[in-house]
Design a protein that fits this description.
single chain; 311 residues; alpha/beta; Udp-n-acetylmuramoylalanyl-d-glutamate--2,6- Diaminopimelate Ligase, Chain: A, domain 1; UDP N-Acetylglucosamine Acyltransferase, domain 1; ten-stranded mixed sheet; eight-stranded parallel sheet; 5 helices; flat
Length: 311
């Protein structure tokens, strides 16, 4: 997430009542999670296990809960609770804005696009040309939809990320300030839910087709011409490359990559990254041919045992 204008390190520190290490005029351009940070971004870290990763990342400002040596060319914001202060910054730069109408005045809707009754179109939503948005679709603020997109009834685009920090008193949400971006020629079935990014974009690539009742988590990026069948659940920060096919009721863990043109058979569980150009099945998902050979071999065990008894 980029800020509307550049800020100084001193200005950001004042917003969250933090101390800092670095030049007071050090430029701060935005804030992001570690997997999408760029120079000028703030990244937060609140566990020693991840200090080195955050300090070595592309981010040039690190919001951290311990005073450590500051890498050359970077700056530190010292906070007793970086998670809380990251949320403060999100609230400041992306505050929630209530809507006064079902289709907000700031929404931009292209030519020949049809919005069916009982839809909600939030603030700063952009919908391209020749789209059809069926009844009871909810499109949260800042969502971007390309041209020739069809979204079926009851789908929700842009709900908050499922991202929480466990506290003694309960679970504290990481506030979502990102977007959903739907590219051209995408079809989305009924009752799908696609969560916004925490600071970046959850993206559905050009020409991809989603069946009904699919959940896609925050910051996931789906490539071009993917096919995803019903009741698939994809966690946050997943990368699905071009022309992947995922059949029904597949579950996918967070932070993994599925390579281009992979095929995932129904009811598989994906717990780690998978190479492209292969077919997978099972939990944990493995190459389907190998799993089926193993199953065929296992079925021979009773026969083998009987043969040994008769010797």
């Amino acid at each position: 997430m980029k800020f509307p204008k550049p800020h100084t390190l001193d200005e950001i520190a004042s917003l969250i009542d933090a101390t800092f290490i670095g030049n007071a005029n050090f430029p701060v351009l935005g804030m992001n999670e570690i997997h999408v940070v760029e120079p000028g971004d703030i990244v937060f870290v609140d566990h020693p296990k991840y200090y080195d990763k955050a300090l070595a990342s592309a981010a040039t400002i690190v919001l951290i809960n311990k005073e450590v040596n500051c890498p050359e060319g970077k700056a530190l914001l010292i906070s007793d609770d970086p998670f809380r202060d990251f949320n403060k910054l999100t609230k400041h730069f992306k505050p929630f804005k209530s809507a006064a109408s079902a289709i907000t005045d700031s929404a931009i809707i292209g030519e020949n696009t049809v919005i069916q009754p009982n839809c909600f179109i939030g603030n700063n939503v952009v919908i391209g040309h020749n789209c059809t948005i069926h009844a009871n679709v909810t499109i949260y603020d800042d969502t971007i939809i390309g041209n020739n997109v069809t979204i079926h009834a009851g789908t929700v685009l842009g709900a908050s990320a499922f991202y929480y920090k466990k506290r003694p008193e309960g679970f504290d949400p990481l506030i979502s300030g990102g977007r959903v971006v739907i590219k051209d020629y995408v079809d989305i079935g009924a009752l799908c839910t696609i969560d916004r990014g925490v600071t970046g974009d959850t993206t559905i690539g050009e020409g991809s087709k989603l069946d009904n009742q699919i959940q896609i988590g925050h910051d996931t990026v789906i490539g071009k011409k993917c096919l995803i069948a019903s009741q698939v659940g994809i966690a946050g920060c997943v990368v699905i490359e071009d022309e992947v096919t995922i059949w029904g009721q597949v579950g996918c863990a967070s932070g993994i990559t599925i390579g281009a043109k992979a095929i995932i058979h129904a009811q598989s569980g994906i717990s780690k990254s998978l190479s492209g150009q292969k077919t997978y099945w099972g939990t944990p998902a493995q190459e389907a041919r190998s799993v089926m050979k193993e199953m065929a071999s296992i079925k021979q065990i009773p026969k083998i045992i009987e043969q040994l008894k008769n010797k």
